[in-house]
Write a structure and sequence with these properties.
Largest sheet of chain A: none
Number of strands of chain B: 0
Distance between the termini of chain B: 186 Å
Helix content of chain A: over 70%
Radius of gyration of chain B: 65 Å
Shape of chain B: elongated
Shape of chain A: globular
Number of strands of chain A: 0
Order of helices and strands of chain A: HHHHHHHHHHH
Strand content of chain A: under 5%
Number of helices of chain B: 7
Distance between the termini of chain A: 54 Å
Largest interface: A-B, 29 and 24 residues
Oligomer: heterodimer
Structural class of chain B: mainly alpha
Strand content of chain B: under 5%
Helix content of chain B: 25-40%
Radius of gyration of chain A: 19 Å
């Protein structure tokens, strides 16, 4: 028991199970500490700041309303991202900002367009964009919704199969989205450098 | 010289990007409060007030309909109402109650105690052999307790009067009559007077022969009252009259 007190890195599955059993805030606080930052980053990457804050509040409220452990997947992290994703899509649909895209899209970012855009940047902007991070952020923002989503999930540690389950897509679709996303980012970074 | 972006650089840039973002703090207590009660205090009070008012109104309506007078019947042309007044029997005054006079209670009998003389010197002992005689003066108080009883005044009233026995037919015909006995000892000597007497008694006119037969035995047919005592004559008259009365049923009515 003492070992459990000292060990702060308790698995999220145990934390969520204990929270459902006891309804004590300390377990949920630990969960928030672990996953609030990556989930907020994902939501913010897919929307704006205000909407991201609302969505993150709604997501944790849904977590608090969970009463049975049967509703929770074995992978709590995947379950939390799924909730955040559904809440995000619902909010985008509610605000008429949701643009559907075909699942088998093979749309690639027109690199020539990106290069032209980069060429059109002013001198000052070019100097600012020298920072690799800024270029990286710009490259991510230029990604399409599903490609950006797949890339972020991969960076958060999900496997291709887990991303496919999380997004309810096929394995190959996720693979292609990841490939195109990485290609785009690399090209963007290379061109900027 | 171009810089080739590698996966490691991308991962590092992603971590830098993520660290630059500061996530908002999640206030779990605020979220729980919102979860607990969806209504504010004012809303709860207004709901309670409205519920109380609604229940009061329902009870008021129920009590109003429970005490409402019966609806009046409006007389139309088709319906005609006949008003019938019921004559209730007049309440007759009760008969005066006659109070029975209860005789006064018998006064309590006073306690009679023997009064012992104060002077004990009266006791005298006679030295008679084996005999002791005590002479004690006793004052006896006599009190008359029983009230004076008077004899009741009796008034004898006949309650039964024997009526003559009529035959069934005479009773059905409601025939009645009064018989007066009147006779004269010397009547047989005077036939006309005897006829008159019996006619007045019976209400029927007799012939001379009939009167003669009344007093004459059937053997002799001699109308003579000599040698007969008054008792005999009286009995004879009674018999004849009784015979005549019993013969009313078979004969004509007396005129």
């Amino acid at each position: 028991m003492i070992k459990g007190w000292l060990n702060t890195n308790i698995s999220p599955e145990i934390l969520l199970t204990r929270y459902i059993a006891t309804s004590k805030d300390k377990y949920l606080t630990l969960l928030v500490q672990q996953f609030n930052q990556p989930i907020y980053h994902y939501v913010l990457s897919q929307s704006d700041k205000e909407m991201a804050e609302d969505i993150i509040q709604s997501m944790w409220l849904k977590v608090m309303k969970v009463e049975g452990s049967h509703q929770v997947n074995n992978n709590v992290k995947s379950w939390l991202f799924t909730i955040a994703r559904h809440t995000l899509i619902d909010e985008l649909r509610r605000q008429n900002r949701w643009h559907t895209q075909p699942l088998d899209e093979q749309v690639t970012i027109d690199e020539s367009n990106l290069l032209s855009e980069a060429a059109n940047l002013s001198l000052e902007q070019e100097t600012e964009n020298n920072d690799r991070l800024v270029v990286f952020n710009q490259a991510i923002s230029n990604l399409l919704f599903y490609q950006r989503e797949a890339f972020i999930f991969q960076q958060e540690g999900f496997s291709v199969l887990q991303i496919a389950e999380l997004t309810d897509e096929s394995f190959e679709t996720i693979k292609s989205r990841l490939r195109y996303a990485r290609t785009h980012i690399k090209n963007f970074l290379d061109n900027k450098s | 010289m171009k810089h080739q972006a590698s996966d490691k650089e991308i991962d590092a840039l992603y971590q830098q990007r993520k660290q630059q973002i500061s996530a908002p703090e999640i206030n779990l207590s605020y979220l729980k409060e919102g979860k607990k009660s969806p209504y504010t205090l004012i809303q709860m009070l207004s709901i309670l007030f409205c519920g109380g008012a609604a229940s009061f109104g329902i009870l008021a309506v129920i009590s109003h309909f429970s005490t409402m007078s019966p609806p009046q019947v409006i007389q139309t042309e088709k319906t005609k109402l006949n008003v019938v007044e019921i004559d209730f029997e007049k309440i007759e005054p009760e008969e005066p109650v006659i109070a029975i006079q209860i005789p006064p209670l018998i006064p309590k009998k006073p306690y009679v105690a023997l009064v012992q003389p104060k002077n004990n010197n009266i006791l005298t002992v006679k030295p008679v052999a084996n005999e002791v005689t005590l002479i004690m003066p006793i004052d006896v108080v006599t009190v008359s307790v029983a009230p004076s009883v008077k004899a009741p005044e009796l008034s004898l009233v006949p309650i039964y009067q024997e009526q003559p026995k009529y035959s069934v037919k005479a009773i059905r015909a409601k025939q009645e009559g009064t018989i007066k006995l009147a006779y004269e000892i010397s009547a047989p000597k005077n036939a006309s007077k005897a006829i008159d007497v019996y006619s007045r008694v019976v209400g029927k006119k007799f012939t001379v022969i009939e009167v003669r037969d009344m007093f004459t035995p059937p053997e002799s047919k001699n109308f003579s009252g000599k040698g007969k005592s008054d008792v005999d004559i009286r009995n004879g008259v009674k018999k004849k009259i009784a015979k005549l009365i019993s013969g009313f049923d078979n004969k004509e009515k007396p005129r």
